[in-house]
Automatic annotation (TrEMBL), chains A, B:
InterPro entries found in the cross-reference section: TR_Rrf2-type_CS, Tscrpt_reg_Rrf2, WH-like_DNA-bd_sf, WH_DNA-bd_sf
UniProt name for this protein: Transcriptional regulator, BadM/Rrf2 family
Taxonomy, superkingdom: Bacteria
Cross-referenced Pfam families: Rrf2
Signal peptide (from-to): none
GO CC terms of this entry: cytosol
GO MF annotation list: DNA-binding transcription factor activity
Amino acid sequence: MSFIPPAFTFVVNSFTNDYMAIFSKTCEYAMRAVFYVAQKSHEGQKVGIKEIAEQINSPEAFLAKILQKLSRERLIQSVKGPNGGFYFDAVSLNRPLADIVSAVDGNEIFTGCGLGLTYCSESNPCPLHEEFKKIRNQITHMLNNTTIGKFNLGLIKGKFTLNK
Amino acid sequence: MSFIPPAFTFVVNSFTNDYMAIFSKTCEYAMRAVFYVAQKSHEGQKVGIKEIAEQINSPEAFLAKILQKLSRERLIQSVKGPNGGFYFDAVSLNRPLADIVSAVDGNEIFTGCGLGLTYCSESNPCPLHEEFKKIRNQITHMLNNTTIGKFNLGLIKGKFTLNK
DNA sequence: ACAATAAAAGATATTTTTGTCTTTTATTCC
DNA sequence: GGAATAAAAGACAAAAATATCTTTTATTGT
């Protein structure tokens, strides 16, 4: 008969960055929200922050801050009071997703060096410069060619998810 | 004569994420350090943390933590004491940069959804799924096909920068 | 005008990432 | 074996990102 001790798991200093995505959470929420509101706008409806947050699965108050910022920058439209909410006008629906990303995450993703060097350039390249340029260009291209309203029909048809 | 008030600049809630790069700072430092140490290893030398930190322009104590982690995972070699330091053996020099990135930033960048959705997949795609897949694949490809020692000659010749 | 509604703004709290400092351990050289 | 060296480990601190709560402002319908 042997004594088996309880399985302790104490992480001393695990130290892997928990969740290192390409975009910040702020930006992820922003993009999801924008697609959701766009779809509703296509159907002629305004949406309140509560519904948006529920539907895209984001913290309501935090998302409110994000949309406030987009609103201040006239990237999204909003009206206060009863029957108010967020929506996109026709012009805004045609804006590139890139505008949302740069409003929220800044321009680093479009211009930054993969190794984080300030003075990395064609004439003073980091080792990854050439390869990273391709990646950056592809991201930029995608973000510039994806309009806010691009997925409206697909979303209405239930082809895409924005939740979890 | 007119009174010109002092120019106050109080940022209420500027709220753009300061610096949103593809990789975390931890990962940027790790990659720069790895390339620097690799180059020295090619020349048969070990390097101390102080020199590495200086040469790649990173906070010394912080970089020490990063290299400790890589060392624990046997991705980099180290010896303590006089004439000690960090280096790569032949096997390690041939490891893909992807190993460094996933040790430090995890696997999100290789597998994650662009909109941060946990259950995004081929059968349950987010709007950006297809486009993002291409980008992820390209990043993955680059990281898998770049060995740690790949830029040794270029670095020795001064073709690349790892600093600032 | 007034009550109700919903976003905007302001203030504050929590968590994660980034960064520093001190002590310990392993190795080398004398 | 002892001093010196350099990484490893541990503890702590600061900054940034994420998240929440409260108050104010604008708008609508009655």
